[in-house]
Fold this sequence. Notes:
The complex is a heterodimer of chains A (229) and B (221). Chain A is of the alpha/beta class and 229 residues long. Chain A is built from nine helices and five strands; from the N terminus they run ααααβαβαβαβαβα. Chain A has a five-stranded parallel β-sheet with strand order 2-1-3-4-5, with helices on both faces. The longest helix of chain A has 26 residues, at 203-228. The radius of gyration of chain A is 19 Å and the shape is globular. With 221 residues, chain B is an alpha+beta fold. In chain B, β4 (106-107) and β5 form a beta hairpin. The longest helix of chain B is centred in the N-terminal third of the chain and has 20 residues, at 47-66. Chain B is globular, with a radius of gyration of 18 Å. In chain B, 38% of the residues are buried. The model of chain B has no long low-confidence stretch (mean pLDDT 87).
Amino acid sequence: MVTEEKKKELLEKLKNAVIQYDEDTAKEGAQEALDIGMNPNEAIFNGLVSGMEEVGRLFEAQEYFVPELLMCADALYAGLDILRPHVQQLDLGVRGSVVIGTVEGDVHDIGKNIVKMMFDVAGFKVYDLGRDVPLDKFVEEQMKTESDLVCLSAMMTTTMSGMKKVIADLRAKNPKVKIMIGGAPVSQDVADKFGADGYAKDANNALKDAINMISSLKKLKEEAEAGKK
Amino acid sequence: MQEHLEKELLQAGATVVGFALLKGALSQEIAHLEYAVSIGVDRNLNEATLRLLRALQKKAAITLRKGGHRYLCIPPDSDRISNTFVSKLYPLFTHKVAATSAGIGWIGRNGLLISPHYGPRLSLATVLTDAPLEVGIPVEASRCGKCGLCVEFCPSGAITGKEWSRYDPFVELIRLEKCSSHKKHVRAVNGKPSCGLCINICPYGRQDNKKKQLEALVIAG
Lengths: 229, 221
């Protein structure tokens, strides 16, 4: 049986491994958690993710910069890769699938990768199209995977305008799909003008917004179904 | 800590270890990690060299972490796993900048780091950190002198023969197009991508047996 004390110690270990971008310790902690029979969900959310939350805070406080953030993300994935196969069901209340990518002409995908990570952690099914993605590909992939959500990223003002076309095309094909955009030149104003459902300032907000959006979508669906009866 | 770090790395198999301050030479994303530990290992370009460099980097990272410092490992150029988050930052940095700034050597006509003792026969890795290290004296200019053996022997004529100096870092030493097309050709002929004549011919750190090998190669055409 897992003692409370041991559990606490392990969660702390996982959390610190992420904060101190220590991949080896993250792997070790994740394996230990499995060995003693800890709930993998708990190890992910109260260990790895709470570490990442602290990293987010450090980043905001300008204690941490881009390299640290990325190394922390690598440490998180190192632990996640071990734990995830043992997760039966992530209980977040909502689940969904998402198509994500950086738009055509843009090769900057650091931010996109971090957002993707947050979706991964939260148990979303992620279809990552990568970077410099031809605009039609987003629509195609959304249709193919019937995803609830499409996330577009752009880091340059020149490539940002491509989002407008993708959003229009997506709306024409499937008015129900939710669209989020993000990236350095993007603002709420741009999101409104382009007709996106959401704009994420950073990875943390992207995830929160995404969960909100999907739950509102599910609600609409339920209401519609209830209305039929 | 620094002394301990240097000793530890040398004992673990590093050929040279140098320390540098890279203020002003780093791109904005990594500019807060302005000190560098430059690690050189005898160049064999095989799996063992890469493993050794990786292990040395890890050692340096652990020591720096214990001292409460930040760090960023830039792995050897030939061993960059690209599926990690942090690998996106690797192209922002070249190992040769750290090595010349640490005083390990200069950039030769062949575009490679030349150490007075080991010539161009080092494989490099770097650990950037915010730990205030005691740094070496940067090498300011090429010490190739009048030697132009690599220019002469380059089978593709890729080496321009110009000289490197810290104050003019953008001078074109190598016509990359020619060099890579030659390597492609070699690969097509004998399956090996390497050329490396500009390494073998360099008189700095050259051993006699290598000289003989080279003469044999030249005679063989």
